[in-house]
Design a protein that fits this description.
With 219 residues, the protein is mostly helical. The protein has eleven helices and no strands.
Length: 219
């Protein structure tokens, strides 16, 4: 069996010396240590509260968005606008806010308020992140708003950006880009866009495509 350490050896043991130093430090600074522990506890509780509040806000915003979408589909544009604006006022930083801006753009465009709609789609583009369908939707909406304002060249660029994201509406986006290029007087650009649309699967579902192609023939 190993011999017990003498008192002198215990006093000279470096581990015990470190323990004694730590205990002495705690005794001298106990007040500040307790304050530090309290601060950490408060920060943990605050962080947890913020997370819960964020989850609750996202859930409430999503519920309000769902109600706005229902009345929009039903054709009640006034109610849809009211609910969407309320969502954006109360929950501007939620995930639902980007989609709400898209729908608000749709509502305003349907009411003939093209400039306001364009601004709403711009806001949507800033908030929808990298979701290609929503990004394309924002560009598409801006294209429609610009076209209704007679700014066909700018509208064509927006439709072309939407088409570049290759969403299920790509053919339609290319056709709209070509149509706006025609309106802007750029037949060569229109022809390029419309031929690209005709080469894509599903283009047969758009009988107007042949008419636009004929109109775009460069003579």
């Amino acid at each position: 069996m190993a011999a017990h350490m003498t008192k002198e050896e215990l006093r000279e043991d470096p581990v015990l010396e470190q323990i004694q130093e730590i205990l002495a430090f705690i005794e001298r600074n106990s007040k500040w240590i307790l304050i530090g522990i309290a601060v950490v506890a408060v920060l943990i509780v605050a962080g947890s509260s913020v997370r819960r509040a964020r989850i609750r806000a996202n859930a409430e915003a999503s519920e309000l968005l769902g109600k706005a979408q229902i009345v929009y589909v039903q054709g009640n544009l006034t109610a849809a606008e009211t609910q969407l604006r309320e969502l954006l006022r109360v929950y501007p930083s939620t995930r639902a806010a980007g989609t709400a801006w898209l729908y608000l753009g749709n509502v305003l465009l349907a009411q003939g308020r093209s400039e306001e709609a364009f601004e709403a789609y711009q806001k949507a583009l800033e908030r929808v992140g990298k979701d290609p369908v929503k990004v394309a939707g924002a560009h598409r909406g801006m294209g429609k708003a610009l076209a209704s304002l007679g700014r066909y060249a700018d509208a064509a660029l927006q439709f072309e950006q939407a088409a570049a994201l290759a969403t299920p509406l790509q053919v339609e986006d290319l056709i709209d880009a070509g149509r706006c290029s025609l309106e802007a007087g750029d037949k060569e650009k229109a022809q390029q866009l419309l031929k690209k649309a005709s080469d894509l699967k599903g283009s047969e579902a758009y009988p107007e495509l042949d008419l636009y192609l004929a109109a775009a023939e460069v003579t």
